[in-house]
Amino acid sequence: MTTRTPTTAGTAASPAGTGTPARSATRSLLTCVVVASPLWAVVSLTQAAGRDGFDITRHPLSALSNGSLGWLQIANFLVAGALLAIGATGLRRALHGTPGSTWAPRLVRISGIGMMAAGLFVMDPVDGFPAGTPAGEAAALTWRSYAHFAAGSITFTSLIAACYVLGRHFSRIGHRGYAIASRVAGTTLLIGNGWAMGGGKAGTLTLAVGAITAMLSISVIANRYRRIR
Q: Omega into 130 within 30° of 0, i.e. cis?
């Protein structure tokens, strides 16, 4: 007579290709998070390289929402934000019962909602972009710009906090490499955003680097948990 040793759901004991419908659903939700950040980064940087008059050292990536092709960046914000907001449920399931399991998914969801708001509220044309816009800062901003900046602040703050919460999560479960990488990603965005807000030289570039680094770190972490489901 043989006995079977029970396994715990969600551990590596079950092959990734098998499992309950709930596990498959969790993997699908995590895939949303995995895809969101690379998608946003690739679409944004491709436009930054190809749109006439755009200079990433002078113009924030959000400015790409202006002009005849602005709909591309607006859609980019909406789709990537929705993927993060929806996929946060998968992250909550994957982290269940571990340190940070409550706040990390909440913060990722808030960042996704913030991105969608940033897409809906388009910032004003700025410093010569798109073509025909006067050089320099505008004398006055529209309410849409203020709403966009508020949405951006919510997004960046929640991303930074999520990175630090995930850093603590990995420290507590003994994964030092992921813990360090998460904190470095959060700090990169914290510094990049602070430099940009302070009017530092090429601040829009440091902000872009920080935002993409933090977002990609969330995707890498989601992919880690997706692989072991």
A: yes
Determine the Cα–Cα distance for residues 101 and 96; give it in Å rounded to an integer: 5
Q: Within the chain, which residues score under 50 in pLDDT?
A: 1-18
Query: What is the distance between the alpha carbons of residues 218 and 90, in angstroms, rounded to a whole number?
Result: 12
Rounded to a whole number of angstroms, the distance between the first and last alpha carbons of the chain is 31
Neighbours of 135 (CB within 10 A): 9
pLDDT of residue 172: 96
Number of helices (H), then strands (E), belonging to the chain: the values are 6, 0
* Residue ranges covered by each domain of the chain: 21-227
What CA–CA distance (Å, rounded) separates 74 from 80? 10
Six-digit token string for 49: 């390289």
Q: Is the pTM of this model over 0.70?
A: yes
Q: Is the dihedral of CA 154, 73, 70, 117 positive or negative?
A: negative
The C-alpha atoms of residue 220 and residue 25 are separated, in whole angstroms, by 19
> Which of 186, 180, 181, 179 has the alpha carbon at shortest distance from 210?
186
* CA nearest to 117, candidates 153, 70, 91: 153
DSSP class of 132: T
Closest CA to 65 of 49, 52, 81, 76: 76
Q: How far apart are CA 218 and CA 229, in angstroms?
A: 17
Beta strands in the chain (DSSP E): none
